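In this supplementary section we document a worked example of the pipeline. Step one takes a protein sequence of length 331 as its only input; no multiple sequence alignment statistics are reported here. Step two produces a three-dimensional model, which step three serialises into structure tokens for compact storage. The input and output of this example are shown verbatim.
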Amino acid sequence: SRPPRPNLANIASPRSPPSYLENADLGHAKPSDPKRAEQLVKKWQGVCSSAQRRSAPGGEGWRYEHLDIWLKAHDTGAYVMQAIADHRVPPDVRTFLSADRMLAFVKPDPDGVAPPSIAFGIRPIGIPSAFRRTAHRPLATEATARWSERLLEMGQVGCGLRAGAEVPPRMLQAMLEFDPSCAIDSEDVKNAFNEVDREAVADVLKREDPELYDYFMAYYQTGCLQLFRLFSGELLRLWSSVRGLIQGDALAAVIFDIVYTVLVLKPVREFYRESVVVLALHDDTYAAGCPTLLPEVSKMLKEYAAKIGLVYGDAKRKLLQLLGDHGSRDA
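The serialised model returned by step three reads:
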């Protein structure tokens, strides 16, 4: 029912011409240098063989196991993978790779009492093509590695940290032990990946990470085809996605973390640098400090989030404080 977001075709890459706009021919993807060709074959065989087995297939029905057999049987497969990774593919191939097979997961009860049900909403998960997921696995690894420490400095613990989910509760526990009168405000964005403004994403990535910008523009510049496979095997085209990221895209998490941290988390942390601790695990955001300041922090978070199309859900908002007589600092 909402009007579609503006098309991103007017947002140009700083490099000219962008590699993803080149009308390349996959038939000429093989390198002329034999050593380079051999390196590509070994590289993509290794990437595919290390991928998780029995993962959900994309719309074309292929899994990593199918790609593994293909890459070992034909050297051409490695050259095609490199062409996809470099965005040097024909427009029709890029359109095919941007399509996603949809899965609908029911959401859990926010209060943790009832079992997951459609009454609590649906979480749409998109499964991109196995070709696209495999071709961009190295980029996902590299992007996570180069951004993890930088994002951690800005309070984002969801990118590249082992057991990152344990960081916020441990830090908040330490704060409560140091000052039992402080309170914690827990905020959660509704359907964060699916709602973030694509223009805001493109703007941030264009400034901060040209490689991720090229990837984003290659697959999100126009509407992403959404497919759904019935039990009969029939594949239906439902709609085209024009907002947000695809939850299931291997690079969606790091891209979202960058945008949310730079545009929402960072300015709030800098404003309350001396008085409130603000942390985030992806879009789950925690503010800890004097109870009288937390409404202001919550309001500022909402204002910055609204600028990029995000809304915090009231159902999951929680205000926590240790039991006791805190006087004027009672939450």
